[in-house]
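As practice, study what follows.
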Amino acid sequence: MRIRALPFLIGLTVFAASVAHAEADVLRFGVTVPERTVTVRAAMKPWAEAVTAASGGELEIEFYAGGAMGRNGKLQYWMLKQGVLDISWILPSNTPNQFPSTDFFEIPLRTTDPMEMSMAFWRLYEEGRLEGFEDVKVLALYVSPPYRFHLRFPYENSDDLKGRKIRAVTHLQAKMLEAAGATPVGGITTTQVAESLSRGLIEGALFSWHGVKPVGIMRSTNVHVDQAITFAPAMIAMNRDVYEALSPGARATLDKMSGEPLIRMMVDAMTGEAEKAIIEARADSVRSFVESDPADSAVWRVRFETAAEDWRKRSPSHDLLIKRFDEILADMRAMNGESAAP
């Protein structure tokens, strides 16, 4: 009897092992921004659900918004590497010196189109030309719509910024403000901007239009300047060890649905939200919109050129990166039937 039962027991063991293997790998995707944020509700969360559905039961992505897995933006990269999170949304500016290549993608010199900049950003990464990403599996690299000035004082040109306290997040933003004679104020988190404006601790902020309503900037300012100042590079990344431990099918699903498809979801969500916010704000009679003035834009362009040149000098590899960036931009514009001129 024991001998006859042996094939059955072996078969049962194999079946149990196959069932265990078939169980979905659960990935924790944590972000610091709240669920109401457009990038969460219209891009990241739907993407996570779509990957789960497309994996055929091999993957399940659990989404945690609002800092449920950790609120400190400066620790997201560390949390990812330590395995606290499997997937995270990260601002490279929160990890100074880790991603030196990304500074270039803050500068709206070659383009002010976030989709164009994001696609060039990603293709440079795919070619292995960007530094600092070796320890993680990058799922998307992109930039926000351009950051513009939202102020509590009148603006005609950048001379009006002299002596004014303006919130700055990145090194480049601080340099741009200093070049205009303003006083950059750091250390103010996104959730503190509206209160800092209302209390007079700052007199303005650089922010993309897609985020001015959720963080309260819309209600705390009434002067808006139509001049692109910087982009905000960001990434969605995965713990590399966790990625490599997935089944081939699960990795294939992630690879297929990451990169350009995920980038387009992110940028389209932000751009659409920005357009709605602008329309709403323009309809408000108490607000002042300052259109981009050619003379003022020329002054800012000189500042962008200076910033790009400063970045180029930091490393011999930056010359090659800029050259390749320009080639990618020209190729994309040629495919779209557009001029290659910036």
